[in-house]
Amino acid sequence: ISPGHVAALAAAEYMGVPYVFGGRSRLGLDCSGLTGVAWAAAGVTLPRDANQQTQVGRLVGVRGKWQGLMPGDLLFFIDKTGRLIHAGVSIGGSRFLHASPPEVQVNSLDPADPLYSKTWAEAFVQARRVAE
After folding, report:
1. What contacts 24+ positions apart, CB below 8 Å, involve 103-108?
2. Are 29 and 19 in contact (CB under 8 A)?
3. Would you please indicate which residues are annotated as catalytic (active-site) residues?
4. 3 state SS of 58
5. Model-level pTM?
6. Would you report the helix, strand and coil content of the chain in percent, each value rounded to 5?
7. Strands 28-29, 58-62: pairing kind
8. 63: number of CA atoms within 13 Å, CB side?
9. Is it the case that residue 67 has pLDDT exceeding 80?
10. By CB distance 3.0 to 4.6 Å, which of 22, 54, 94, 118 could disulfide with 108?
11. How many CB atoms lie within 10 A of CB 114?
């Protein structure tokens, strides 16, 4: 099993955990807290902040080109001003786990997927592969 699969499985264990700004535990976590604990399970320490996490690994996806995403890839999202505001963990393909109020949940970048989120698909800016 790849480190990315380990990270994706670890992130999935947090499904339904409440969103808490600055949180990094089962009591609650924020978006970069989720990516951090997911990758910690795979033995990789990520920087705490999503902005810093954009410097980890290699670029594997950009807006409109997410089809090759693999479990564990980090997804990053921007607001309308171009400021990075959010991070998530790919579970492969278009679906990703992320801590967004009210809780850790799964959404999709694919309009044909029932879990599609237009908001997050439009905000998606890049994806990075932490480990092969």
Report:
1. 103/15, 103/16, 103/17, 103/18, 103/19, 104/11, 104/14, 104/15, 104/16, 104/17, 104/19, 104/29, 104/34, 105/15, 105/16, 106/15
2. yes
3. 31, 86, 98
4. strand
5. 0.96
6. 25, 35, 40
7. unpaired
8. 11
9. yes
10. 94
11. 6
Q: Find all residues with CB under 8 Å of 30, minimum gap 6, and list them.
A: 19, 20, 21, 22, 23, 24, 99
Residue in the structure block whose two tokens are 């810093």 = 52
Return the structure tokens found at 20: 């808490």
Tokens of 121: 């698909």
| CA distance linking residue 72 with residue 81, whole number of Å | 27
Q: Which two tokens stand for residue 102?
A: 């009210």
What's the rounded Cα separation, in Å, for the pair 59 and 114? 27
Task: State whether residue 119 is helix, strand or coil.
Answer: helix
| Local confidence band at 131 (pLDDT 50, 70, 90 cut-offs) | confident
